[in-house]
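Researcher: Next entry in the queue.
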Amino acid sequence: MRILLVEDDPTLGPLVARNLAAQGFVVDTAATARAAELALDAGGFDAVLLDLSLPDGDGTDLLRGLRARRSNLPVIAVTARDGVDDRVSGLNLGADDYVVKPFATEELVARLRAVLRRPAETLGLRLAVGNVEFDPTHGAVVVAGRSVSVPRKELAILELLMRRAGRVVARGAIEQGIYSLGDEIGSNAVDANISRLRRRLAEAEADLTIHAVRGVGYMLTVAPTPDSVKGAA
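Model: Structure for this entry, 233 residues:
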């Protein structure tokens, strides 16, 4: 999952970003409201962690603008404003949750995962395609009942492909899902990760196939079983 962290504190921002990355999130950061607007215009985010006190404006203005555009992007307000009126105001403006500083990373991650579970059409509690199951909350992959360890970038690709099984996922969407805006992306970085993921799934005896669609991206399908092939014949 790709997160936009809007935080101007030069110590807290990098710390939160590192902690979220350690939990498997891809994190982009913005230290101003303007930088956040530009990042949001680029798109590709699954949620926003929004500091309400920014050097060039109030985070509530950014939130108000998002909701005015009818964006349902999950937003968690992260702020030192701990008054009841502040919390009520933030929630009424469209924040999905409200976290008061200082906070524990575990709480922030739990709240983030909770809001990410809400849009049921794209974010289920558990994904299952063929004999592969994926639990987004814990980053756990199970193939035919056996747990399989999958590195973070491959895990992000697998989740993207499983959520769109049977449909082509554009290369650009995959890049957005596994790299932050500041990352340097090699020309064959996605292909290399796909290749490793294919090998890992094959070794685990997954019945999934990742197809390359030339010039577009990749698509995940369930490989036909011998019995289904015989039936078709």
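Model: Residues 120-124, 228-233 have pLDDT under 50 and may be disordered.
Researcher: Noted, moving on.
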